[in-house]
Amino acid sequence: MTTPEFSENIRLIIWDLDETFWDGTLTEGGISYRDDHHQLVIDLAKRGIMSAICSKNEHEPVEALLKEKGLWDYFIFPSIDWTPKGPRIKAMLETIGLRAASTLFLDDNAMNLAQAEHVNPGLNCALPDVIQHLRDAPQLRGKDDSGLTRLAQYKVTEKKAEAAKVTGGDTAAFLRQSNVKVFIEYDVEAHLDRAVELVNRTNQLNFTKNRLPDDPEVARQELSKRLAHNTTDAALIRVRDDFGDYGFVGFYMTRRVNNSRTLEHFCFSCRTLNMYIEHWVYAFLGRPRLTVEGEVLSDVHNPDIDVDWITPANIEDMDAPSAGADLRFDHIFARGGCDLASLMHYFTLHADKIVEEFNEPRNGQMFRRDHSAFLMPALEGGLTPAQIDAAAGLGYMPEDFHSDLPDLGTGHGLYFLSFWADSDLPIYRHRATDLRVPYWLIGAQNHNLIDRADLRATIAKTDLHKERLEVLCRDYEYEGIMSQSEMEQRYAAVLDQLPAMAEVVMILAAERGPLHFKDPNKPSHPFHQRLNAALRNVAQGRTNVMLLDPAALIEGAEDMIDLNHFKRDVYHRMYRAILDRFTNAKAA
What we know:
Helix content is 32%, strand content 21%. It is an alpha/beta fold. The chain has three domains: 12-158, Rossmann fold (3-Layer(aba) Sandwich); 170-317, 3-Layer(aba) Sandwich (Aminopeptidase); 331-587, Rossmann fold, CATH 3.40.50. Strands 5-4-1-6-7 form a five-stranded parallel sheet, with helices on both faces. Strands 11-10-9-8-12 form a five-stranded mixed sheet, sandwiched between helices. The N and C termini lie far apart (75 Å).
């Protein structure tokens, strides 16, 4: 017989015993143990290919013999009784989480093989004469696992399956008593090979199937490039329970466009199948847009599955919980631009209620909620009807001047405030109503649009833009960028209205961009300097206010995309710096 070939890689071999694994029949008292088969089981395990047993036999003598030979622990899910083999194999594969097409069943009885294949369509079945050729079969090359980590992981699954019988098949009840913990590792770059492996090797729980190149180095480079972007949110998922550590079993990566996230990678190892880890992660992410490609073994869109048995934590708290492990707030509020949108992803673990008021695209331009002109009316009684009508002429809606900030209550809240737009968006005053609002279009951020007919002609991309610029010139007058004293008055008024227990993080603006790393003599951004001076003056003496300076966490030009946008890792450093602030405060 020539070397066999299978339709796909074999991940599990299910052995019959009598006249297959060994010669003879155990219950009839005469067998000849096959040392070559013994060694094959061990060698395959070192390639990451598992062996199981499905035999019609008495369990106790089989276990005793294989323990005596030192091989019992190399088999997973031994099924040894006198019932039909087809249903037993089906149950085994469902528990393990493997497809029939990646499994090979060996038996000397052709009827057993036929029945097994009938119950398990796609199952690879063969008589014992194929065994001598398996070592060299191309679909059994596997990959180096000389440490037998894969075997250890399946042994954990086996132990769990036995323990689950105590709850009478109630999966949720069993999981609730299993102490399942999910650890989130945001530093994907430190485990890049594992992320690539999950993207390219997972199948049954790979929801997006956006594969990376087969060449490992090219795959690492491509994933690293995607991870670096400031609109990327990503993490590896590690799982532990009372039965063991499953390692990094999942990876997700989202891309944010206009503050709406889409999953580009969402993939999990089958070693945690039926623990509903993927359901929990999807809910944890806020159910972003997910297009499922191909067949998967789990439906994360199923609204009937409510995962309440998982305890989440950051990876830093896995073995020695840090002071930030139990950092919880009654609510978290964030108002600002894309800087906060990139940062808030990391705070999902720290509050059940998170309110985000971010910039949003509208009619070919960005509505900048990070300008305080849109927040102050919500704190000062709102606009008059005439001012609402005036604002509508520039495309602003009544809800643009609303905020949930005053309505969050008096509990222990964490508030993120970023007013970067105050630094360089000019104010225009409506002559008839005294409404004061910013207005800008891409290409004219700092300019007086009323005086610059040439600029208006260049930046007006649509008829709507032209109409609004006409309203601006007809009904408004240019005031310019706010003075530092007015900034300080506004920020003090915001802070004064927050509850006594509020913790506040105000984001400073970067004063030096990528070009400053090449030319240290290049002057700092004057508008950002003025904003930061106002923030520092307002924060002085307020012990509940933290000024977060991105510049202190930027190590070089490679960390920056431009003056206002940084690589993903910078936002994670910002997150850790905030946790350190609370850690030190608690220690004091």
